[in-house]
Amino acid sequence: MKNKIIPTQVEKVMRENDFIVSTTDTKGRITYGNRIFVEFSGYSWQELVGAQHNIIRHPDMPRSVFNLLWEVIQAGHECNAYVKNLAKDGSFYWVFANVTPLFDPGGRIEGYFSVRRKPKVESVKVMAGIYRTLLEVEQQAGAREAIPAATKVLHQVLADKGVDYDEFIMSI
Fold first, then answer.
1. For a pLDDT cut of 90, what percent of the chain falls above it?
2. What pLDDT, in 10s, does the model give residues 138-169?
3. Does residue 152 sit within a domain?
4. CA distances from residue 67 to 7, 41, 71, 164 in whole angstroms, order as listed
5. What does the alpha-carbon distance between residue 11 and residue 77 come to, in Å, rounded to a whole number?
6. How many angstroms separate the CA atoms of 26 and 19, rounded?
7. DSSP assignment string, 28-62
8. Are 156 and 73 in contact (CB under 8 A)?
9. Looking at the domain assignment, is residue 154 inside a domain?
10. In angstroms, rounded to a whole number, what is the distance separating the alpha carbons of residues 66 and 160?
11. Mean pLDDT across the stretch 38-64?
């Protein structure tokens, strides 16, 4: 069970050569985390393995973004995203994440592999603004309509830019 962590304004910044690596099963339970994951999350390896990956979900992250990520990877495709994570001590750290499905020999998804690296500062500023907007929409729409309402806004932002989600993420 996830403890209630109180977010702080303390930011941890990844080093240029850091890569956070983790794997999960199909339900999002962590099956592996490297030492950089342990370091930035603030959890021990024992606390991470078997826990839901959302143990590090920061409340500033819109639910609609994770819904999009899950739709893409469950369809068997890779997904890139900028993510603000919450460490055990309440600090936060931004990552540029690549999440890829892992397939068994029969071609069925058996889990997910994620590699996160230090994001560009400019990209974080862009995404933080978009995420604030999506969170406001989610809060105004209420729990039941939050994800569809914010997803609609995200699709409109992308349409206004003339790109799809992946093109946008890779361009900033």
1. 98
2. 999 999 999 999 999 999 999 999 999 999 99
3. yes
4. 22, 22, 6, 16
5. 31
6. 22
7. SBEEEE-HHHHHHH---HHHHTTSBGGGGB-TTS-
8. no
9. yes
10. 22
11. 97
pTM greater than 0.85:
yes
Does a structural domain hold residue 28?
A: yes
Residue 94's domain comprises 19-171
Alpha helices in the chain (DSSP H): 35-41, 45-48, 63-74, 121-141, 146-161, 165-171
SS3 26: coil
Contacts of 138 by beta carbon, 8 Å cutoff, 6+ apart: 62, 63, 64, 146, 147, 149, 150
Residue 75: C-alpha distances to residues 5, 54, 103, 128 (Å): 32, 20, 12, 26
Return d(Cα 21, Cα 34) in angstroms, integer. 6
CB of 68 within 8 A of CB of 154? Answer: yes
Residue 85 lies in a domain: yes
Domain count along the chain: 1
